[in-house]
Specification:
By secondary structure, this protein is of the alpha/beta class. The chain is 36% helix and 21% strand.
Length: 482
């Protein structure tokens, strides 16, 4: 199956246009993923990459620049591999704000495609800050790059990164503009967490096994916790992060997508439409917090020393940690508390989903004690699924102890973080598979949930606390949400 899919990918003539090719996203994620795909031989002979940016490169000088990006991330890249890979690249110098630059880009794409004499994918990848999206959208339309007749020899798609907007109003404005250029089946909104192996395995665990799905509801489940603790801080991302914060950077997208996969109804099949539909239906049941609940059900904090980071505004109120408690209005989940949290500069690197089951009425437990069972879907520090249960200790007494069934997906050394996620996203965008991409409906529902929190924090209804870096102090302070 995989071999056939790889053959199909190689037979799809494709031009990937990276708008912002000299940026950080391209260097750390996109180019290394493309190099990995090249080494695997899945890109094919009719695959080209066009870089677009303001720096004074040309078709030749872009090649050593790309080779250096690869060498910075891939230590075993050979001279021959780099030489072959860089031949895929061309460059069009231009300004995002200038219509003439897009006309020159259009002419370059025509020249590349002409010898193939086949219908060709054009994938426009916006590897740029979100505040540049609008001017790019407008110039794609003005140049005719987005207005492609259905019977033409071009299939045009666009890939955009999160965050998509900064609130519901800005997201809807961008979406209206984007929707005027491309139909929904041509828009690929990236949330790279959807491409993570263990996030995909939440869906597989639930719907490819019969063990737990019948008790996957509010009759049997006591609570759901979704955590993303990071030991890294903001570091070199001060200017970007200070305008976003933990809630927008991680909560509005990654945590809510993990929640959707954990709680959505079974899709009719594994097609993109079926899975996106069920995720979107679940998102609509997110209950925005009422004003009186925002004070007690949300917590925000900033690690000490954040002000010292380059690009951070003096006196910034940007949160580097947050936790929220909510629930869903879906009949399956009414009454089940859901906790979501993420933080920078924590003592541990932990990313997981914890499903805690209710204490059984007929449990053989000591008086006054209630044993619970939990399932962990762990992304970090290890990729694993763990099921906790209780057993009698060996010996003459009836003492009990906690044990677990552990499934380890693979060793941490086998994981290529970011590279493998972007490999999947790029290949799926070539194939036209939107399973791992976010729909318009999902974006709208996620912002409808997040907006009241943003507003409450802007009014200081929830005071910003501080915590010491490299500790879990923020978590301890926010325990009152329980």
């Amino acid at each position: 199956m995989q071999s056939n899919q790889m053959t199909e990918n190689k037979e799809i003539p494709t031009i990937l246009i990276i708008l912002g090719i000299t940026g950080d996203l391209t260097a750390k994620k996109v180019v290394p993923a493309l190099f990995s795909l090249y080494k695997k031989g899945v890109l094919g002979d009719k695959f080209r990459i066009v870089g677009f940016g303001r720096k004074p490169f040309d078709n030749e000088s872009i090649k050593p620049f790309i080779a250096d990006l690869v060498k910075a991330k891939v230590k075993d890249a050979s001279v021959q591999e780099l030489a072959g890979f860089t031949t895929l690249f061309c460059y069009q110098q231009g300004l995002f704000e200038t219509k003439e630059s897009y006309q020159a880009l259009k002419e370059m794409l025509t020249r590349i495609q002409q010898p193939w004499q086949q219908k060709t994918n054009r994938l426009f990848y916006l590897a740029v800050p979100p505040d540049i999206y609008q001017v790019i959208f407008e110039n794609l339309k003005a140049s005719g790059l987005s207005d492609v007749p259905e019977n033409s020899d071009v299939e045009t798609r666009i890939l955009v990164e999160k965050p998509f907007g900064s609130n519901l109003e800005s997201a809807e404005k961008l979406d209206l503009l984007l929707g005027s250029l491309f139909s929904e089946d041509k828009i690929y909104r990236i949330d790279h967490y959807l491409a993570k192996e263990m996030v995909q395995n939440i869906l597989t665990f639930r719907f490819s096994n019969d063990m737990f799905e019948k008790i996957w509801n509010n009759q049997f489940i006591a609570k759901i916790e979704i955590r993303a603790w990071e030991t890294l801080g903001v570091e070199q991302r001060g200017a970007f992060y200070d305008n976003v914060g933990a809630l927008r950077d991680f909560g509005q997208n990654h945590l809510l997508q993990m929640l959707a996969l954990t709680t959505m109804e079974a899709p009719l099949d594994y097609s993109a439409h079926a899975i996106q539909l069920k995720r979107a239906q679940l998102m609509k049941t997110l209950k925005p917090l009422a004003k009186e609940d925002l004070r007690t059900h949300t917590f925000r904090a900033q690690y000490e020393g954040y002000f010292e980071i380059a690009g951070v505004k003096p006196g910034s109120k940007t949160e580097t940690y947050f936790k929220t408690k909510t629930e869903l209005s879906h009949p399956r989940w009414i009454g089940v508390p859901i906790y979501m949290e993420t933080g920078k500069r924590m003592a541990e690197q932990i990313k997981d989903v914890i499903v805690t089951f209710k204490h059984g009425e007929n449990c053989i437990c000591p008086p006054g004690l209630h044993y619970t069972n939990r399932i962990f879907f762990s992304l970090e520090p290890e990729e694993a699924i763990k099921i906790e249960f209780w057993v009698k200790k060996p010996g003459l007494t009836n003492d009990m102890e906690k044990r677990s069934l552990d499934f380890m997906l693979r060793q941490a050394s086998e994981r290529m973080q970011y590279i493998e996620e972007y490999e999947k996203l790029l290949i799926d965008s070539i194939k036209g598979d939107q399973t791992l991409f976010v729909s318009t409906s999902e974006v709208k529902s996620m912002w409808e949930f997040i907006d009241p929190i943003i507003s409450a924090w802007a009014q200081n209804l929830v005071p910003l606390k501080s915590y010491k870096p490299d500790t879990n102090a923020a978590v301890i302070e926010s325990l009152d949400l329980n």
